[in-house]
Each structure stands twice: as C-alpha cells, then as structure tokens.
Fold:
Amino acid sequence: MKWTTSNIDILRSPLGVMVVIPAPHDNDLAKLDKEKEYVIEIKKKSKSRSMNANAYCWVLCQKIAEVMSNHSYMSKEDVYRKAIKDCSHFTYVPVREDAIERYIQIWQSHGLGWIAEDAGECKSIKGYHNIMCYHGSSVYTVAEMQRLIDCLVDECNQLGIKLDDSDYIQSLVKEWGNEQAKKE
Structure:
C-alpha cells in the first residue's frame, strides 16, 4: 500500500509516540494483521520533473552527442553522465576497502545518472576510501534540474548548436514547478 497524505499527527504518551496518518478508504487496510510486522516509511513529498523538462534534457544531450561524434563517437547517455558530473553536487561516502567495488555497483544500479567513483583513501578512517556519489536527475529538485539544463544549454552554445529561445527553455522548467505546486 502506498498513498500521499497530509495532516499527520503525533500523539505522545508516557508509553511512547503514536503516529496518526490519514488514509484512504481501502479494503487492503482492513487486511492488516496486528500480529505481523510491517515496514512503514514516511518521506516528505518531493517534486518530480515534468516530462517536458526531462524530454528537453534528452534533446539537448542528443544534439551535443551528434556534434561531438564528428570527432569521435559519443552517445547521448555519455553526454548526460558527463553533465551530471559537471553540474551536479555529490556526496562523499566512506566505504570499507574490501566493499568498494560492490558499493559502486549497487549505487550505479539505480540508473544512468547514478555515478560513483573512488576518490581515494579516507584520511579520517583507516581502511576506508571516500566514494564520490552523484545522484541521477530522477530525484532532482527544480533548482537541480534547472542547473542540469543550464549546463547542457551552455555546452550547446559553446559548440555552436542552435537552440530554442531561452525564454522557452526557462518556461519548461517553470511549467514543471507550477505543475508541482498544484499537486501540493
């Protein structure tokens, strides 16, 4: 079961804390067994990108790949991954030396833009390496998506690729933000 809700209440008592979550009328809820354990996850609702902004991101990647392939082959996926690294922030994660390869493999299995690279030994934790972990654009905020598109637009401009009017480009991301505001 999964649903979106608001008005979550917290009830405190000497015995602990209870979370009251408004739920839809759902027959599946009646099937919950008090004797079984369940995994409950509460996450703040985040904005997702519009397909227009996402589609435009891939159009830009394709245009760059076509021009760059005049010198040596480059795919739109290569362009996307390079842009993720060029414009995105990353998080350092300390990983035990014997687990580096597996950690990177698991991280990168999240998707094309999920990049992890060994940045070398961790100075503060012996036997560990710092892994630079980049998140894919599927979890970007509006500002992060805007930065990615701006990075790709800048690359197009440097390569002399003609693009749509910049107001149109800005409207794609703004439209996405407006759609998300309506959902909240």
